[in-house]
Structures are given as structure tokens and as C-alpha cells.
TrEMBL record:
<feature type="region of interest" description="Disordered">
    <location>
        <begin position="254"/>
        <end position="278"/>
    </location>
</feature>
<dbReference type="GO" id="GO:0035269">
    <property type="term" value="P:protein O-linked glycosylation via mannose"/>
</dbReference>
<dbReference type="InterPro" id="IPR052384">
    <property type="entry name" value="TMTC_O-mannosyltransferase"/>
</dbReference>
<dbReference type="InterPro" id="IPR019734">
    <property type="entry name" value="TPR_rpt"/>
</dbReference>
<keyword id="KW-0802">TPR repeat</keyword>
<dbReference type="Pfam" id="PF13432">
    <property type="entry name" value="TPR_16"/>
</dbReference>
<dbReference type="InterPro" id="IPR014596">
    <property type="entry name" value="UCP035836"/>
</dbReference>
<protein>
    <submittedName>
        <fullName>Uncharacterized protein</fullName>
    </submittedName>
</protein>
<dbReference type="InterPro" id="IPR011990">
    <property type="entry name" value="TPR-like_helical_dom_sf"/>
</dbReference>
<dbReference type="GO" id="GO:0000030">
    <property type="term" value="F:mannosyltransferase activity"/>
</dbReference>
<feature type="repeat" description="TPR">
    <location>
        <begin position="141"/>
        <end position="174"/>
    </location>
</feature>
């Protein structure tokens, strides 16, 4: 791959349309339920334990419970999360919105609803709902991090970084928060600071593949394409690693930013738009 100014320019232009997606993609890290954000609803029922890990099957199980009793908070939470995991994000937001109306003081449901709004690009509404999901006296670092991503999407980068800083006071060196902070710097073209922050995240044993891909994006943006490819391959299976590198090369070679879109193949994990459900 040649290092050319046109490639670097294409990559920079791509950020305006794709990097914000990457910011949200790393918001919570891992394919976990919203109970990981604010704690469970306090249920240890056999019904909850019997829910399968497969998100499509979970959507069926929780969906049946939800339709039988739409005011069941646990069913609504599980159903909304399963819908998010299967890409039905508009429906997830609708289910969780109704659940928060039925249970206006339930902070776990508020957190889930706020995250669903963020999924759908409703950044201001997401921020407002998430602000009700925890309190300054008892802040939740995961919610702080997601609030930061919503602010970044609204272009309020300095304010977003204050939220990341607050989260990091609670969980120092947490890789998912550092990843969001690094991408925030990337959005304002502070690339050395972005790389330094993402390398801190990358060095953490708990960093997942998305952190590695975000680092690859920032390294590639600075013209170090061979290094970016090496990072992009990371610990992925051979087919996904090859797809990542191919996509990175394609992205760098294009000059028309309107055509720079993540591929539709769900088996591919694009470098700059890791749209995995959290």
C-alpha cells in the first residue's frame, strides 16, 4: 500500500460520517445486558435464569412474557435488550419507552431506554434520559461513558470529555471509556492525543476487539498504514482479519466520501464502524 496524500485525505473525510458510529460502538463494550450498567432488577427467578443466550431466542422468550404482561419490568428490559442485540433498535426503543412510562422511577429501565435512543441517533433525548438513570451522588460510570458519546455526536467534545473523565475517576484505565475518549480526540483531529489514549486502552488485558480496531483507525489516519493493518488483524479469526484489512485498504483508496460506507455483509467487522450490539 502506498502512503499518499489522497489516501490520507480520504481517510480524514471519512471520519465525519463513520467515526461517530465508532464512538458509540465502543460505548459499553462487550455483548452484555443493560443490567450490567445499573445492576439487575433484583430478580433471581427461574424464568430469568432459563432465558437462552442466543439473542434471537431470547427475543422470543422475553417477547412472549412481555406480550403476556407489558407492565412486567424485567420482561420489558430483557425484550428491549434482545431486540437491540438482533438489530431491531427502533422496536427496542418503543418497548423500553413504554416500560419507562409504566415504571417512571426505574433507573435500570431508564438506562436501557437511553441507550436505545443513542442507538437510534437520538442523541439529545438519549442524554436527557440517561441523566435520569443515575444521580451525581451515585454515578454509574457506564452511563457517564454513554452520555459522553451522545455529547460527542452532538459536537460537544469538551463536555463529552468531562463525562469520560468522571467515569475514569470511578474506574481508572477502563478500556471502553479510554476508547471513547480517544475517539473523541480523533473527531477533533487531535490525533497524537487520540493514539496515546487508545494505546492505553489497547494495553489493558480487558480491551476487546473494538478497542484494537479504533486504534487501527487512528494509526491509519496518521499515514502509518502497514502498522494500522497489523493492528486491525489483531486477534480476529483469519476471515474477519482479511475482511478488516480489505475494507481498510478500500476506505483509504477512495476519494469520494459519499461512497465511503461500511459493507453490508454482517460477517465483516469494518475498521471504522464496529456496529456490534453492546
Amino acid at each position: 500500500m502506498r502512503r499518499s496524500s489522497s489516501h490520507a485525505g480520504s481517510f480524514a473525510r471519512f471520519l465525519t460520517s463513520a467515526a461517530v458510529t465508532a464512538v458509540l460502538a465502543a460505548g459499553l463494550g462487550g455483548c452484555k445486558t443493560m443490567s450490567d450498567i445499573t445492576g439487575s432488577l433484583g430478580s433471581s427467578s427461574s424464568k430469568a435464569e432459563a432465558v437462552p443466550e442466543d439473542p434471537r431466542r431470547a427475543a422470543e422468550v422475553y417477547g412472549e412474557r412481555y406480550r403476556a404482561n407489558p407492565k412486567d419490568a424485567e420482561a420489558a428490559l430483557g425484550y428491549g435488550q434482545a431486540l437491540r442485540a438482533t438489530g431491531q433498535r427502533t422496536q427496542a426503543a418503543a418497548v423500553l419507552e413504554q416500560a419507562t412510562i409504566a415504571h417512571p422511577g426505574n433507573k435500570t429501565l431508564l438506562a436501557a431506554y437511553g441507550r436505545a435512543l443513542a442507538d437510534n441517533g437520538n442523541s439529545q433525548a438519549a442524554f436527557d434520559v440517561l441523566s435520569r438513570a443515575h444521580t451525581p451522588a451515585n454515578p454509574d460510570w457506564r452511563i457517564l461513558s454513554v452520555q459522553g458519546t451522545t455529547l460527542d455526536k452532538m459536537g460537544k467534545h469538551e463536555e463529552a470529555r468531562r463525562y469520560y473523565a468522571s467515569a475514569l475517576k470511578i474506574v481508572p484505565e477502563e478500556p471502553s471509556v479510554l476508547s471513547n475518549l480517544g475517539l473523541s480526540y480523533m473527531l477533533t483531529r487531535e490525533l497524537p492525543q487520540a493514539e496515546e489514549t487508545l494505546r492505553r486502552a489497547y494495553s489493558n488485558p480487558r480491551a476487546d476487539a473494538r478497542v484494537r480496531q479504533n486504534l487501527a483507525l487512528v494509526v491509519g489516519l496518521q499515514g502509518r498504514f502497514a502498522e494500522a493493518e497489523t493492528i486491525a488483524k489483531g486477534d480476529l479469526p483469519a476471515d474477519e482479519a482479511a475482511a478488516n484489512v480489505a475494507y481498510l485498504r478500500e476506505m483509504l483508496s477512495r476519494k469520494d466520501k459519499d461512497h465511503l460506507r461500511p459493507p453490508g455483509n454482517k460477517a465483516t467487522v469494518p475498521v471504522a464502524a464496529l456496529n456490534r450490539p453492546d
